[in-house]
Amino acid sequence: MSPSALSHVMRGLEDGLGVRLFHRTSRSVALTEAGRLLLERIGPPLDDVGQALSDVGALRDRPAGLLRINAPRIAGELVFEPIVARFLFAYPEIRMEVVTTDGLVDIVAEGFDAGIRRDRRLAPGMIAVPVGPPRRFAVVGAPSYMTGRTPPYSPSDIHAHACIERRFPNGSHYSWELAKDGETLEVEVSGPLIVDDTRLMLRAALDGVGLAFMFEELVAEHLAAGRLIRFLDDWCPTSPRFFLFYSGRRQVPPPLRAFIDFLRSPASR
Asked: Is the pLDDT of residue 236 over 90?
C-alpha cells in the first residue's frame, strides 16, 4: 500500500475505535499508549495467522493431507494395486483412502476428491484424466472344464457353454462385449454361478466352473502356466481406458494435484 492509502486506513481505524493510535507531527509518527497496547495484544495472533497461511501455501510444494478416491473394485486391482505404494513413498505426508464399490457414486456429495470410471460420460463440470494403458479382454476356461466339450469358435458358440456371470449393484447382468472387423456384439451369457467380484470369478474359472470374460492382465499368468485356455482371441476387444475424474468447479486440493501429476509421470508405469 502507498503511504497515503495506509494513512487513510489507519485514520479509519482510529475513527472506528474512537481512540487515537498515533502521535503525528510533520516529521514523525509514533504510537500512543493505546496504539502500543493494541499492537501488543494483536501482534501474536496476527503472527499466528501469517504462519498458518504460510504453512498452507507450502502445501503447494509439499503436498500433505487426506486424499479420498472412489473406484470400482476392478480399478482397485488394475489401477491402484500396482502404484499405491510408489505414490505413498513419493509423498509420505499424504494419506490415501480408496473406497471401492461398483455402484455409481456422487463423488462431490460423498466427500471424495476424485473417482475412477471406465466410462468417460460424466456429469457436467467434471474433468477426466486417462489412467493407465488400454486393456484387452479375454475369454478363458480351465482345461478341466473343456474336457469332453467343443471349444467356442464364434460368439454364437458361447451359448452352448456354462459361463460365469457378472451382476452389477443395480441388478443388471453384464453382457460380454465382443468385436471383430468393425462388428460389435453384446452376448448375454448364463451359467451355474453369478458373482459381483473379479477374484471370485477367476477362482471359479480356475476350478472349472465355466468360461469367464476378464481383463487379459488378470489371467496372463494362468494362461502362461496352462491353468487356463484362451478362446475367441480375435473377438476380444480392447477396453476403454480408465479415467480419473474430479470436479472442475472447485480448487484442486494439493494431494489430488500430486496424484494427477504422478499418474502422468514415468514413475506410475
From this structure: yes
